[in-house]
Design goal:
Elements: H1 2-21, E1 23-24, E2 28-31, E3 43-44, E4 47-56, E5 65-70, E6 76-81, E7 85-93, E8 99-109, H2 121-124, E9 126-131, E10 137-141, E11 146-150, E12 160-162, E13 177-182, E14 188-197, E15 200-206, E16 212-217, E17 224-230, E18 236-244, E19 248-256, E20 266-267, E21 270-275, E22 284-291, E23 297-303, E24 313-320
Parallel strand pairs: 16-20
Antiparallel strand pairs: 1-8, 2-4, 3-4, 4-24, 5-6, 6-7, 7-8, 9-10, 10-11, 11-12, 13-14, 14-15, 15-16, 17-18, 18-19, 19-21, 22-23, 23-24
Length: about 325
């Protein structure tokens, strides 16, 4: 009975603390164009620009957005940060259906399964987010490599630990899971950022029965995987990032057929588009997909500014042109 009362008390304290920490966040959104040097440019490869914003805030908590999910109509955004926080916002669109702002923004801390705040960068570094079929949210962390699943109510709730793939916790700090994807059959796909299987990136597949399988992803140049999402037809769309001192940031979006995802497979993605200077770019780490009015497919990308004055938080949208 004493243990039960202690557990109930801890739950109440955590719930009260979580509610108090869910505070509004004032944002300023500056509109963007696809190409600052050629404002008439509206397409790149198979992508059509559908608006974007550079987001700033005087609140020191803001920044470090690592991944996001959207609701079915592309309005309600939920994101995680690499400083152990969550963010929610409502995206707004102009009359032409282009992204032009973010309102109703709130931010709060992520907690561990005991209800305690995540303390220190080692435990706060949330890098990947996906929504499971029951509405719960699964978050992958680096540094202290682990998985936490948060209840359907959102990231302010108390999570439960999920068993990580064997060996994951022994990886170096930035080599863990960077992209998570819930599959249509109830399985889960996870891409690592620096864990190699030979020359390839290690990919984990947890099938619908819970069995774990190893896969691999062929690298493309200097690009590393940072996010993944499902297209309406069921295929996987992968976001990859590149950075060099001379060329700065680059991003690549590619497609992996759902039929290719099977135990032991070496995945080879087909490029949809590559984003490079002078296009609007930063450290793109998050990706979400939704269907807009008219049945078009929208891709929403978010960048991680690393809390650096030299980087920006960007939220941009593209329409996928051609077969979805």
């Amino acid at each position: 009975m004493r243990r039960l009362l202690a557990a109930v008390l801890l739950s109440c304290i955590a719930a009260a603390g979580g509610a108090a920490a869910q505070t509004p966040l004032a944002l300023t959104a500056k509109p963007l164009t696809l190409n600052p040097e050629d404002r008439a440019q509206e397409t790149v490869d198979r992508l059509r620009w559908r608006g974007g914003i550079a987001v700033t805030s005087d609140d020191a908590r803001f920044g470090g957005l690592s991944d996001l999910v959207l609701d079915a109509n592309g309005e309600n955004l939920t994101a995680v940060t690499d400083a152990g926080r969550w963010l929610t916002a409502r995206l707004t669109y102009d009359r032409a259906g282009n992204l032009n702002g973010a309102t109703n923004t709130r931010m709060g801390p992520l907690r561990d399964p005991r209800g305690l705040l995540l303390s220190g960068k080692r435990y706060q570094d949330a890098e990947a987010l996906t929504r499971l079929s029951d509405g719960s949210l699964l978050v992958a962390f680096e540094r202290d490599h682990r998985l936490l699943v948060f209840p359907k109510g959102g990231l302010a709730g108390l999570p439960q630990a999920v068993a990580p793939p064997p060996g994951l916790q022994s990886l170096r700090a930035n080599a863990g899971i960077e992209a998570l994807l819930a599959l249509p059959d109830g399985g889960l796909l996870a891409f690592t950022e620096g864990h190699k299987a030979g020359d390839n990136f290690r990919v984990y597949l947890r099938d619908a029965s819970g069995q774990l399988h190893n896969l691999a992803l062929k690298p493309t140049g200097l690009f590393v995987p940072t996010a993944a999402a499902l297209l309406p037809a069921g295929d996987v769309i992968l976001l990859e990032r590149r950075f060099t001192l001379l060329g700065g940031f680059g991003a690549r979006l590619s497609r992996i057929p759902l039929t290719a995802i099977r135990p032991g497979a070496v995945l080879d993605s087909k490029e949809i588009a590559e984003l490079r200077a002078p296009l609007t770019l930063d450290n793109f780490e998050g990706l979400a997909v939704h269907e807009a009015e008219g049945g078009t497919t929208r891709l929403t990308l978010v960048s991680d500014d690393n809390f650096s004055p030299l980087q920006r938080t960007l939220i941009v949208q593209f329409e996928l042109v051609g077969t979805n």
